[in-house]
Amino acid sequence: MKRIDFASRDDMAEQLAGDVADRLRRALEERGGAAMALSGGSTPAGLYEALSKRDLDWANVTAALVDERWVAPGEEGSNESFVCAKLQQNRAADVRFVGMWSDAPTPAEGLAAAEARYETVKGSFDVVVLGMGPDGHTASWFPHAQGLGRALDAGGVRLAAVKAQKSAVTGEHLDRMTLTLGAVSEAHYICLLMTGVEKRSVFEQALKAGPVEDMPVRAIIRMRPDLSVCWAP
Ligand SMILES: O=C1O[C@H](COP(=O)(O)O)[C@@H](O)[C@H](O)[C@H]1O
């Protein structure tokens, strides 16, 4: 595992934007296209803004979501709205976006439509950007969630519908869709972003032995020993 502590959130955003842009550029040169999967939340906002200013053949770059709350774009908590607002601007205005939400009543009922959209992303992601919640979730792999078994499938299934326990701390939205462990873990490069001392201690806890269901971020830590873990105060 590569652990990088940055001096500030701005440093983390700028340096990581350079690194991600280099990886996308290489994929564009080699294959004529590049794809990344991006998390929502709040931590990666600076990264996406910094990335949007990089000079790339954005029309041939796909930005898909790592996970989504089952809310329409424009509603509070929509990862689609967050990623598009932060990334789809400046030089990256033409980036091709692939989201998960549809007007199906539940994520389970929306799975087939989302899978069809994700089918248009050929091959593995060049880059996956993950975040981590204070409960040790990453993507929408929430501790002991309904659907966690499928979400942690390491085989060919790409997307899963998840019903999380309502968090007493954050009051998080229950209905989610997420990339599976299999889809994330086959990416060429995966970075896990976190900020603040609280998340650092959550991460230290996740490194200890213990059930994946208690802290699902363990699944990717254990599966990808080359994970890049980026932290800023
Ligand atoms: O629920 C979510 O939370 C995580 C972490 O979010 P943050 O606000 O603490 O950065 C995020 O990675 C995930 O995409 C999101 O759906």
UniProtKB/TrEMBL annotation:
One GO molecular-function entry: 6-phosphogluconolactonase activity
Pfam families linked: Glucosamine_iso
Domain Glucosamine/galactosamine-6-phosphate isomerase: 8-221
Reactions it catalyzes: 6-phospho-D-glucono-1,5-lactone + H2O = 6-phospho-D-gluconate + H(+)
Keyword presence, Hydrolase: yes
Class of the enzyme per the UniProt entry, highest EC level: hydrolase
EC numbers for this chain: 3.1.1.31
Pathway terms, separated by semicolons: Carbohydrate degradation; pentose phosphate pathway; D-ribulose 5-phosphate from D-glucose 6-phosphate (oxidative stage): step 2/3
Keywords of the record: Hydrolase
InterPro entries: 6-phosphogluconolactonase_DevB, 6PGL, Glc/Gal-6P_isomerase, NagB/RpiA_transferase-like
Swiss-Prot/TrEMBL GO biological process terms: carbohydrate metabolic process; pentose-phosphate shunt
Family, as annotated: Belongs to the glucosamine/galactosamine-6-phosphate isomerase family. 6-phosphogluconolactonase subfamily.
Role noted for this protein: Hydrolysis of 6-phosphogluconolactone to 6-phosphogluconate.
Protein name stated in the entry: 6-phosphogluconolactonase
Organism: Hyphococcus luteus
Lineage: Bacteria, Pseudomonadati, Pseudomonadota, Alphaproteobacteria, Parvularculales
Encoding gene, per UniProt annotation: pgl
